Amino acid sequence: MTKVGLPAIEIYRCSDLVTYGPTAWWDTPGFSQATITDVQNAGDQAYNVQYHLDDGYDSSFLLKSGHVDGEYTNPKTGRLEAGPGWSTISGSATAVDGKENTYTVPITDSYFAPQVGYKILARGEFIFCNKVGESNNTIINDYTLLNCAGFTWISSANRKTTFNSYVVKPAPFPPPGGTELPARSSSADGVHSSGDFIGPTFDSCFFAALDDDCMAVHGSLYTITSAGSTTNSFVAPTGEASPGDVLRFYTNATYTALGTATVTSATASSDNLTITVDALPPQVSDLTHTVWTNQMRSGSGFAVLNTHTTGNRGRGAIIKASNGLIANNLFEGVTYGALDLGPEFSDWGEGDYVHNVSLINNTVRECNYISKAAAAVMVHGDGENDVHGNSNITISGLTIEKTTASNLYIGATEGLRVGGLRFVDAFQEEYELWESWPGAVATFENVAFEAVTGKVEIVGGIGKEGIEAAKVIGDVTGLEGGVEGLVTVTTDDDITE
User: Fold this and answer.
1) Distance CA 169, CA 152 (A)
2) Distance between CA 397 and CA 363 in Å, rounded?
3) What is the model's pLDDT at position 436?
4) pTM (predicted TM-score)
5) Could you tell me which residues come within 8 angstroms of residue 409 by beta carbon, excluding any fewer than 6 positions away?
């Protein structure tokens, strides 16, 4: 395909559709790309970077000042590393005299030091490369996506979409007129599921070098304009609700859970939505300072199975849905964390808390390696961080290897079951810009344990001074023997043939 703004496939209001085998690519990638030719360290995480625009790429976005949604990529590893995506180009690029298509630009607040030979990347045009909506039981078999501009697939209001052997990777050839291979596969998420009735299933998929999260499953957070004209009704500027849906209410800003109610009617007009429920929770005292989510539209019933993600900027999977299984996956070289479970109300208006989710036999390798994300694997809350936010979470057979930041963070969770957790070579490398938080290999904050099967093993020791093996914060219950009895640490000196 030659037109960057054109989606490849759209599926809408279909049932029991099975599709097979296409490869879709865009000749001109939907992102900017250049090669760094010189770096001057200006101190305090600031750099003056010189780069040469790679031929064949739409590189105009690299010339603009302001925040840039991009990153550096390490050509030796093929991984996207924290760079301009968390930085600010503090001035417009300046052309270098006598050097064609070569520019210098000041970059501030860079989490990772750029180096000569690295690629500097920035998002260009943003589209949904494929779409599926309001469909039931759609099966996507053996797809390959190359040079995507934005989300490789957007899914909304569906009842189960299955992605089998779905592949997103950098194109193995340069764009027309170019000689440099693309350093990434997509300028945003892999598959983004927003507001699905039944969440997607991913089986035997492969995601490489994406600009953001590989798999995202979530619902949305909605506001309330006013009380309705009848009892137990309210008016919302936007939202999705149908009779029988279960809504959960929270306080605005602090996101304290207030209870649930069932929709009895929903009437849409040109500018708002009036919803009536069976009974508003008694804790709801001021509707205008209340927000809500729809429990039927957050991707419940999802599955991530036998899937491999590598070298992307965001998370391997970011999940805000319930009743799911994450099993037998490999996440490696992810700049943020491999697995991120829990709401992002304040940042993105996405939810919800997760319930009845099992993480079984997953391997995480070199994730969260240069980033300020809390951990390579994390289950978290938002706002008040209520211990009853997430519930019934099982983590078994988890191995985390060679992660330079925190390995595991569990917060705001009731009914936690853990067993067979193994952390290998934790905090083994030092990075000048790394600020350790929360200062432990494993952290538990406001957690009610239900069962612990065996100890948590830390193999190879802890490579960075001042890092605890494990720590508890806030109200942690059900951990017999305390955190000291949960974790064992084995150094290299303890390992014998």
Assistant:
1) 11
2) 8
3) 46
4) 0.93
5) 374, 375, 377, 378, 379, 380, 438, 442, 443, 445
